[in-house]
Design a protein that fits this description.
Elements lengths: L9 H24 L3 H22 L5 H25 L4 H23 L10 H28 L3 H21 L4 H24 L10 H30 L4
């Protein structure tokens, strides 16, 4: 089958950050403001994620709306997993961050041992795609835990948290331009965009009493979802236009 992961461009990173923000604010909205509670939110989002993954795995090529729907749902479920450990089981953010880091490292190690590559440019088999989505889930869970650890437990706050993670990603971009391993650069940036998006979501949605802008989870989620949909539609039509313009073999 064709590669199932989109080309890594500025639009890719934009949608990725927006989806992580929606994962943070959307999970909070469903669990708290919509009254579903953490358990029902987890159950509903996990069920939707299974459906989206089935659609993604059954497809023989990259389909923008299926891929990004899966990413958004993974973001919400990853957030819920971390929140469940922290709020319900009272697991320390230090412990959950370390645990998810180990789980992600083990996933990468097994992936590389089996496939001899971690490149997203070669997601051309179902087995590689399963490794890919497992890694994505752990990056979201790890990013949520690390983001909460930085902004809450370590007291950085939302504004400083956004700045710190943005600077770290900028450093990775610089090192990538200087010739750092592209696979390593990609996954480091992918992990860090999660706490960046989560901190941005909290900054925009939380009340001013807690250091936020006060837009609320509803408005923040709707705005970011709208931008994601617009970008996905644009990418879809752009891809179709390029396919039509490509000369037939």
């Amino acid at each position: 089958m064709l590669n199932k992961v989109p080309e890594v461009t500025l639009i890719f990173w934009t949608i990725k950050i927006l989806s992580t923000t929606v994962g943070e604010t959307g999970a909070d909205y469903l669990a708290v403001h919509a009254g579903l509670g953490a358990n029902w939110t987890m159950a509903c989002m996990a069920a939707l994620l299974v459906v989206a993954l089935i659609l993604q795995l059954r497809s023989s090529r990259y389909v923008p709306w299926i891929y990004w729907l899966t990413v958004v749902l993974v973001s919400i479920v990853g957030t819920q997993i971390t929140d469940f450990l922290t709020d319900k089981l009272e697991v320390s953010l230090y412990v959950s961050t370390a645990a998810f880091a180990c789980a992600l490292a083990a996933t990468f190690a097994l992936w590389y041992a089996v496939e001899r590559t971690l490149s997203i440019r070669t997601i051309v088999t179902t087995r590689r795609e399963l490794f890919y989505w497992a890694a994505i889930l752990f990056t979201f869970a790890l990013g949520t835990a690390a983001g909460d650890l930085a902004t809450e437990a370590l007291g950085l706050g939302f504004q400083l948290g956004v700045a710190v993670f943005a600077v770290l990603i900028a450093f990775i971009a610089v090192f990538y331009q200087l010739g750092t391993n592209p696979v390593l650069s990609f996954w480091l940036a992918y992990i860090l965009t999660r706490p960046l998006g989560a901190s941005l979501g909290d900054l925009l949605s939380q009340s001013r009493n807690y250091g936020g802008v006060g837009l609320g989870t509803v408005h923040t989620s709707l705005v970011f979802l709208t931008v994601i949909i617009v970008l996905v539609v644009w990418v879809t039509f752009e891809g179709e236009r390029m396919d039509e313009a490509r000369p037939a073999e």
